[in-house]
Fold these 3 entries.
Entry 1:
Amino acid sequence: MKTQRWMAVVLVAVVSALTALAVNGWRFALIMGLLGLVGTRRRLTWELPRVQHLIAVLLVALIFAVQYRTQLGLSAGQDLNWIALTAWQTFSRFVLSIMVLSLFLGKPCVNPLSLALFVPAAALCAGQISLIYENELLHRILETTGVLLAVVYLGFHKIPFPSFTVRALSLRRVIAAAVMLLVLNTGWIAATVMYNNQDVVNFLGGLLGGHNPQIETDGSIATSGGFHGSGKLHTLLDILLEDQGDILLRVESEAAPGYLRTEVFEYFYRNQWHPSTRSYRIRPEPAPLTTLKLPGSGNIFQLRSSQSETWHLMNLWPSPVLQAKLFTPLGATWLQIPAPWLMINSNGVCYNPQFHGGINYGLATPADLLPERIDRAYLYSCLQLPQSLDSRIETLALLLFSECRTSTEKIASVQSYFRRNYEYSLNMNIPQNTDALNHFLLEMKTGYCEYFATGAAVLLRLGGVPTRYVTGFLVNEQEPFNELWVARGSDAHAWVEAWDDQSRQWLIVEATVPSTIDPIAYSNVDYFREHLDFRRQELWSFFYEFGLLGPFIWFFQTSQTLLWWALSLPVILGIALVVVIWFLRRLNQRFYPSDPFAEEPPDQQQCHRMLQKMDSYVQQLGFHREKAETLHQFTRRLETNNNSLVANWIPQWYILYAETRYCRQPLPLYMERLQSELQQIAEQKE
């Protein structure tokens, strides 16, 4: 009884803390929490019919519904996140209020079983609010912990389960551990379902408030790691200088991945590229083909249409610093990723603002790109020229393309011109109030990928070739340990995609001249350290996808390599040693149990065991005999109860036990009577 009440106190404190976290305030949660702590003692309770219980709950719900609508009316904010936040905060207050109300209703002494339902509900509210603030890990932890606390509380109520014929304590502990593991995974799966459907769940908050918020399908989403939604020159310089040795992307592929794009731009204005296409939301598709097995996990999305039968497959592992944006090759068709939806534009650039870095995704690209149908209006936008373009650049373009007839010839002419006349350098000093593109093409003759790509795109447009500016990674390095292709900060790159009228395809144009900077030399120790970093990232990805079972799946998958066996062998041996020691100790306790009454006479031992059984029966009925309480004091307390079994039979048994136990030599007749009445009480209790 005492343990069960303390567990109820813990639940009230947890729900109060979750409510304070959800509403971002402590006053309401503190007041209701203190009332709840008073209610856990079950001294001030009212026994009402179930209909009146329901009426009380509906009245409280009506109060909070009015408060919710009033709060919506007082604010001018109508966006989806704000409406969902208000709805979840209101529901969080409602959950705490109903929990406190339930503690003052019903029969005294025992706290209600319904308390177990309020913890997952409060965790759900706080978890959904944490998703609005893009804290997905806190959301999963809250909901998993809520389910676990609810099951633990129900366990303290000693809900009857079928009795096991096997008395081995070790087997029961194994079963209990399996139940706890199942409970934790159930909470994690529930959190995953809520996370994957959060936009739908939050949309319901707007319907509850009488609003019809529109889900935005466009917006400028930025990523860390140097890639931004804007194509301003010098955007990639920080990552090229500061993070050049850090691995930002790993790719599992049969061949070198090459160019992986994450941004595409069409308009160049005032030293900055801008996109011309809007993004729209797409939902998952059925599996494309039975013969196509994507290497990723999660939902499958179709990025473009293709009839190819041969595919290049890639499994990408972005660094945790790369969030929201995805890296895909030109022509990527299918993508598999653990996300409920994607934003994509007509250029094939896709992202998800809530997608966390460090989680792998797979994609498929046709082996042979087929001709495309491109809108002429879009091709016209890819021919727009900067307004501040110097006339000397137009003269340069006329000289470069004087003898060129096709797009491929013009591309080769631009590439040859840059290689003959320009040098690669990261140190660029452009005077203030000077157009960077004009200065690069006419005066400086040195630069890096952003300037070469911009210059090539503008020159080709002067020659009538539609172009677009692309940023991403150029991936050509392979790790020796796991044979994964890696992209470091120094592999951040900008290039051009040019439209070829003859093949009706976009062609990748590499205009940047070879770098004269010596590459960083990496030793086997460096590669080994990076291999361990990847294993940690892989573990997190499995944990993200499979919950608490993820580490086990990750272990069995990675243990296929001899290297990982060598690394994990000490851990395996240590775990095996602990299991063997634990098994031997349990075996020793089973065959040589430590009995606290072993040194007493047999009659005294039998008396002690009968008293332990009776105390256990009484505890299951909601009563607990204190250590300092005598048997006669305890019987007087039981006699005040309305239950005939508790008020008559059990006190008489305790009195008979006291008379038998404290005689110098317990009489056999009394012992048989105690045993018989104990058996009858046990049968009546069941």
Entry 2:
Amino acid sequence: MTTHRILAQPIALRPARVLTNAAAIDGVRFDAAHFPDGYTTALAVPVAEAEVAWVLCQPGPVLPIGSQSSLTGGATPRGETVLALRELRGIEQAAPDRWRVGAGVTLAELQSSLATRAAFFPPVPAYAGAQIGGAASTNAAGPSTFKYGAMRQWIEGLRVVLADGTVLDIERGQCRAHPDGYFELNRPGGSRRIPVPGYHLPHVAKISAGYFAAPEMDLIDLFIGAEGTLGVITQVTVRVITPAPQTSLIFIPCPTETAALALTAALRNEAQQTWRGAGIGLDISAIEFLDEDSLALMRADGVDAATGIHLGPPTRAALIVQREHGTAAREAEAVLRLQRLLVEAGAETDLLVAGPGDVLQARRIVDLRTSVALGVNARIGLAQQQADPRISKVAADMIVPFEHVTEMLRLFREEFGRLGLMHAIWGHISDGNLHPNALPRNAAEAQAGQAAILRLGRLVTAMGGSPLAEHGVGRNPTKQALLRQLYGDAGIEQMRSVKAALDPAGKLAPGVIFPASADLS
């Protein structure tokens, strides 16, 4: 029976291993955002839920971390005890299409284990080294969101240790908010109401922008995407599909950006018809986009030559398409239809294709896209060393309904161009999710670029989009400002009220999502 009430259970505590040596501490001082000045004096490495609870019952703030693949600084410590969840292991089948997974299991490990049963977990982000607890905590999304959605749609259960060391065991559909907008949390020492925020989330394919909110929402969704600020996820129950689809990756050079956008729209339409049973079987699960400036970075770094693909001057944009293979009877028709669409769009025929099982070629194609982000990061690092240490990365993670993608691209270029900022734009175009990245040459350009990101956030929001799509908010000041723009001051205060109900002392991940308060109660 569904109810708005849930009971948090006490658990017998067991001391966890706590490391204080310099080597262990140095290994967790930074996440993938490379925020400066990360510091901590203690690293707790629990091997069981009882040890997680013990850590939370010790004095002082705690920062839960997974693989620290965060691009927002959300897993960079600021003096908290770091709670590493990597030793929370275990993968077990709970039902034909349900698996219980320890928070420390990486997505690559999960997929490998599922493959032995011909099963597949669809919403895996681009970085398969992420741990599933962290992926759930950020509502992570990836290339295949176009077909499968983000993590939220595939999570059926969570075990969560609250800030007081009690444990919630949540199943989807078990606990929904009261029509008046609250949950009731019962635990030793009394009960407390957890309010549901009143703001409305943009209607887009993916969003990682603070706490989820909806009328009569499921309690499980409050913890998905909360970035470890409301509780520590120790186990995730996921839904999987069987059999795993057979897929191909195709790198498609395009003569113009207009051609790339037209081809994307055509492929999206074909896929959606196929899913409805009305198409000819051309099933596209993901489309990635690289603009001309992204390709220029690849050429400059010699990545095109290393992968053996021609990216000469006629190529002004490129797509990476993930296609799922259908039955043998429909495969030939699907391939012919894809070829016709390529011809109609004027795309080049010098394709790089990785068929099912061609792991090496697929890795080459994935590396093409990854090389652009690596190239940007390398140039930022070099500029910091040679020009000005105050230079910072200027990047965004924005999403709009697909019909507004062309307009969003135009706005990105206008804004960066007006400031004279070198830039590159890439991302999951089938979702309407793009990552504009500027390459500032000095601190003044970096500051101007961050201001431009805030202006672009307002414009994207006005188009029905979100300035925070898949990376979360973390401790990034610009992303926290974008969150405030999206929901207003009232929305941030509503989030603080949720935090105060579950973590009144502000113990968990202080300063993540919104600035910390000394005492939220």
Entry 3:
Amino acid sequence: MYNPDFLLCAFLVYLVAIICVLSKKGTGALKNKIYIAFLIVGELACTFDLVGIVLSNHFPRKLYELRSICFFGYHFFHPLTAFICALFVVEITGRIHEIDKRKIILLLIPLVLFYIPLFLNPAYNTVYYFDANGVYTRAIFMLLEYLAAAFYMGFVLYEIIKYRNSIRKDEAWTISLFIVVTIIGVIIQYFSTTTPTEVFVMSLGSLTVLFTVENRDELYDPVTGLLNRNALMGELQSSISSGIRFHCFGVFFQNYEDISTRLGYVVSDAIEKSVAEYLMTLGKDLEIYDCEDGFFCLLLYHAREARVKEIENALVERFDHPWEMNGYLVPFITSVASYRIPEAVGTLDEIYSMFARRKHHQDEVVKVLQEEDLATFRRDIYVSRAISKGLSHGNFQVYYQPIWDSQNDRIHSAEALLRLYDEELGWISPDEFIRVAEETGSIYDLGEFVFESVCRDIGWRDFKSMGIDFVEVNLSPLQCMRSNLVERFRQIMEEYQVQPNQINLEITETATARSLEMLRSTMLRFQEMGITFSLDDFGTGASNMESLVDLDFEIVKIDKSILWNTKDLSAKGTFLENTIQLLKGSQFKIVVEGVETQEQKAFLESHGCEFCQGYFFHKPASIFDFITYVKKFNKIGEQEHLEEIV
């Protein structure tokens, strides 16, 4: 008599797992499809074995044909679960896209070697038979079934070890546990043929894998039903770690946010769903991901050049025309990125950079970003790393550029400028690393570093004794988003005993046009402390006199481009002259940047410009060179000597 209890339990375990996958996990992802196939095949093997054992227990000398069919079904599906388990592991390592028909055939060989005697069994009793008493008995070729299963389990372990960097730790552990408990079940059943524990233990092992399979909500976008960004990153991680070659297309709608705002999210969701439906018509060989905010990613494995061009042309042709939806004509501003991986993009960092930089391409026509565009993306990655390393290794330095007071002929203030030297990249332009810092969020740390460095220098170097009234510190509009910015700066000033009137915060003209309300609130809180503000780069942005007065700037810094474009100061300085007089009439203090010649200095003096800044006086310098220059220019040593004589 066989004990069917373990098989009944296994049947229920497989059934529960199947219901969970279909109801909660979903079968859209390839991993989920393979896993549900594994459960269904395991359930079929369990069902055939259970029915066969029940019949054997109650009709030991009857129903030979039906019993034989049941055990045939069990032996057909049971080793197939091991093969599907191998496919599951190949999928989670990302290597499933490398498996072509030839490799599938090679992987099927152990299973086929067992299936040959299994299909011959009805005639030759090669795998199992019923003895004279009707008892199910194993035959010699039954060994091939266990050898095939052992081969697939060994293959699974090999894949897990070799491609461990491509597999999540929880997946590796659960699959390893599945193999261990399955081996235990096989050993128990081998020594106790009447207790079918093997299938039951396999069902328990498969249940542990269930916890590593993502839920539908974690993998799919609720609007389009496509796989989402989480699924994409998992797929890219596995494929790149395994060295898989494929092609990546990114479709970026630059004006998606504007369209969503103007048309409403109901209409924009309908448009996004329509776009997804179109992308799915491009071919079943494409894996399509909706990464939200007007960004779709398409992956093409085993890509041929002709097929890549076909997809590029189809995307450009379609999105070069407005998208019609519910009576709306939506003119998408679209960029299409097209890259080979890993030849062009070899790491996830580079792909992240590619995705993040899409917003910098604002062309009015569809633009295909090819692999040559990656130089900028890679540079941003290297600069971002240099910023992180610079903050932790002290590679950043604060330089000071003097500001000359024309009325008193002295250096009365300075602008703090950040400099970065990296061992690998050399000197990095502030325009470059500031932009990258704003994109990556490290601008907050940079801003605090500069402010604290300036306060330390003011407090420790006694700037007032050198005639330096205040230092201008640049303030990024992103810093103003920090609710604790004012309080944090107050703490730093108190730590170094710096007075509020020794600090002037400098904001660019472009920032005032972009973040007016946010700036007004932040400026008011700083001004209540006694800190003044300068408007930088005046003449290059979109500010007007009303916003200048409304934001209560004390100093306006005229951008160097206005001075430099006035080549013949005597004949063509009217615009600059009028600008100076307009600002002076509005009671602003004026600093003109970019002064490099005696002629420029004399022109500005003659037109009542109060302050000048530029290479004519001094380039931005380290704290030591700056102090030396200021003391010499302001005759600090001579004044001290005269006081001693008196």
